[in-house]
TrEMBL record:
Name of the protein this chain belongs to: Lipase
PANTHER family: GB|AAD30234.1, LIPASE
Region named Disordered: 1-25
InterPro entries: DUF620
Length: 362
């Protein structure tokens, strides 16, 4: 392998189509399209889709990126201050060097027929897949997660400079864009990261969701990062996330993000892929004096549309229930060596072959 292909959070298939070798970019595009569509219409590949989309998604922006063009209102500042006070996370500053967590997941595809857009309105189409995960994080940008579901193991990590993922069907892949945290960490497991990443958010008003009156904050990936996460065949158009903070408790109770990608091969019409993920965050418990979320449910919807889809938009839905079994701070023995990427990711690549730029791609 001369270089790593960009990381995509949707799955790729075991089968490869390499009949036309005249252009690596065209071949890459054909393989991407073939593998994505074959998986989304092949029920035997449900588990691969679940693991690729729900397993290790990344947050839209880095806690260090900030939103320089966004005016942070006094309302947004108040919401974050309320959150930090409610969780008690300020006491962790300067004291916590690493975090360790273990948990369980249950994933399933969701029936598309008759669905009104809510995963709670319909049931799983097939057998739910159970699994577990272990996660390590070292302040500030180093993290590693191992997730095993249905006999398949997915590993993803970041050493602070490059992020990567390894699956049984595509091996190890580097990622595009700026360094970003694992989305699971922002699902109430790391209140300090939540307060840091939303400190520059835009206040969007109030909304009642799941019977809870919430304040809503919005974050968007900037144009530079979107460009870094794009290439000649796949253009990242937007990636936004909304955080819903309870007006009463101050806690983060819901996350909803969406990203839109435009896919076009030379000489063909574009296809658009929109992935929306929503997560209910609950069961906050005290761990060493800090409120940590210990459970929740996530749902994801992948919508594909464009002129070349004659029958109209194609929709794939999936859901996950997750729980945290154990969480600890400052675990002895955790070192920088634990976050070293696989050998393939550490290779040096010729400048002319780089169509990914630094570390992360959604």
């Amino acid at each position: 392998m001369n270089r790593l292909a960009p990381l995509s959070e949707e799955p790729t298939n075991d089968e490869e189509e390499d009949n036309n070798n005249s252009s690596k970019k065209v071949s890459s595009w054909r393989n991407w399209l073939k593998s994505h569509f074959s998986l989304l219409f092949n029920k035997k590949s449900d588990l691969k889709i679940l693991l690729s989309v729900l397993g290790c998604p990344l947050f839209p922006i880095s806690p260090h990126a900030g939103q320089p063009n966004t005016h942070v209102s006094s309302s947004a500042e108040y919401i974050i201050q309320h959150f930090t006070a409610a969780t008690g996370c300020r006491k962790l500053e300067g004291k916590v060097k690493n975090v360790f967590a273990t948990g369980k997941v249950r994933m399933a595809m969701v029936d598309e027929l008759g669905s009104s857009g809510s995963s709670t309105a319909v049931g799983p189409t097939g057998v739910s897949q159970k699994g577990c995960f272990v996660m390590w994080q070292m302040v500030p940008d180093k993290w590693l997660i191992e997730l095993v579901v249905g006999g398949h193991k997915v590993v993803a990590g970041s050493d602070g400079n490059v992020a990567w993922r390894h699956t049984p069907w595509i091996g190890a892949h580097a990622a595009k864009g700026g360094v970003r945290p694992l989305r699971r960490v922002l699902q109430g497991l790391d209140p300090l990261a939540v307060s840091a990443v939303f400190s520059s958010a835009q206040y969007m008003g109030e909304k009642r969701i799941m019977g809870v009156d919430c304040f809503v904050l919005k974050l968007s990936a900037d144009h530079t990062d979107l460009a870094d996460r794009s290439d000649n065949t796949a253009e990242m158009i937007k990636h936004v996330i909304f955080g819903y903070f309870s007006q009463r408790s101050g806690l983060l109770v819901y996350l909803e993000d969406s990203y839109l990608t435009r896919i076009q091969s030379p000489g063909s019409r574009p296809t658009y892929w929109e992935t929306t993920m929503a997560t209910k965050i609950e069961d906050y418990r005290t761990v060493e004096g800090v409120m940590i979320a210990h459970g929740g449910q996530s749902s994801a919807i992948i919508t594909r549309f464009g002129d070349n889809l004659k029958v109209g938009p194609a929709i794939t839905r999936m859901e996950e229930t997750w729980t945290i079994d154990d969480l600890a701070f400052n675990v002895p023995g955790l070192s920088m060596d634990c976050f070293i990427p696989p050998e393939e990711v550490q290779k040096d690549y010729p400048e002319e072959n780089l169509d990914w730029r630094s570390p992360l791609h959604r």
